[in-house]
Amino acid sequence: MTSTSLNARADAGSPAAAAAPAVRDGARRRTSRRSRRRIVVDAILVVSALVWLIPVYWMVNSSLQSESDLLSSPPHVLPLHPRFEAYASVLHDSAFWSAMGMSLATALVTVVVTTIASFLAALAISRFRFLGRKALIIAILVVQMIPAEALFISQYRMLDAWSLLNSVAGLSLLYIGGVLPFVIWMMRGFVDGIPADLEQAAMIDGCSRVGAFIRVTLPLLAPGLVSTSVFSFLHSWNEYTLALIILSKNSAVTLPIWLQSFQQGLRDTDWAGVMAGSTLIAVPVIILFALVQTRMADSMVSGAVKG
Q: Which of 31, 45, 74, 299 is the most exposed place for a label (fewest CB within 10 A)?
């Protein structure tokens, strides 16, 4: 008998070889437990998502029903006879398109200004050590604690003195001031998450400081820029109270204020029109999230530099 056969028999009779099936069985059991746990977690997440979608479904469902169906008891879970008159009424309303234009203009100005300003401020706070840096950070936190309602009178008088009431510029100015402290703080977290070693490595390879920032750091900040832009857009798109105070002309209203046109004082409310208008207002938000959802992750540089 050769030495190879003897070694094979010795290995087969060793304790490690005898324990190998038990190890494999244990690994399979652990994998099975992880799979079952994953299935349970996925099921919980799916149920949670469906619960969150119920109000959206009910909004669309109500927009397709007649007034009598909406007020029936019990309510109709499905639109038995879908009606699109509410959508046609909204789309043929010139006030809707005027409010849409003002909301889009206000949101665009707010997003552009807050994104640029928060980007530059976050870079200064994160990358540089200057006199008053800690005081500035504390000031940003303190400003966020001030209730918005406490500023309404002073904001109205300020815009009135500057002749900016009922204007895109005036409303955008207030939205920028209201959302800027938070997006600066948000953007600072993204900048802190990008190691400065990446820029130094690019400079060693021949890039200038500006070139290293544009070619290396700026692309990695894309998730932060998208996140702050989306937050600024949602803030300006859905805001109601401040717009109600600043905008007093029927020709200068945003979409949340325009929805009031379906309420006829204390007499009646066109709920189908309200739901149809709300659905149309939500469409730009859905389109926005569909376009930027792949850029919303904030972990693109995870593991880029090893300690």
A: 74
161-166 CB contacts, 8 Å cutoff, 24+ apart:
165/246, 165/247, 165/248, 166/246, 166/247, 166/248, 166/249, 166/252
User: Rounded to whole angstroms, how far apart are CA atoms 71 and 271?
Assistant: 10
Statement: residue 226 has pLDDT above 60: yes
Peptide bond into 256 cis (omega under 30): no
Structure tokens at 293: 């959802």
pTM for this one?
A: 0.78
Closest CA to 228 of 186, 188, 190, 193: 186
For residue 21, the model assigns a pLDDT of 63
Residue 239 sits at the vertex; the CA angle it makes with 238 and 241, to the nearest 5 degrees, is 145
Please report the DSSP string for 62-122 in residue order. HHTS-HHHHT-SSPPSS-SS---HHHHHHHT-HHHHHHHHHHHHHHHHHHHHHHHHHHHHH
Place of tokens 């244990």: 26
What is the three-class DSSP state of 219?
helix
User: CA 287 to CA 227: how far, in whole Å?
Assistant: 15
Output the pLDDT for position 36.
78
Max mean pLDDT range (109-123, 196-210, 286-300): 109-123
- Asked whether 205 and 199 are in contact (CB, 8 A), the reply is no
Taking the CB of residue 210, how many other CB atoms lie within 10 A of it? Answer: 8
CA 102 to chain centroid, in Å, comes to 21
Q: What percent of the chain has pLDDT over 70?
A: 84
Residue located via tokens 């703080």: 185
pLDDT at 123: 87
Question: Over the stretch 90-103, which tens digit does the pLDDT of each residue have?
Answer: 999 899 999 999 99
Residue 149: its pLDDT value, please?
83
Task: Specify the pLDDT at position 27.
Answer: 62
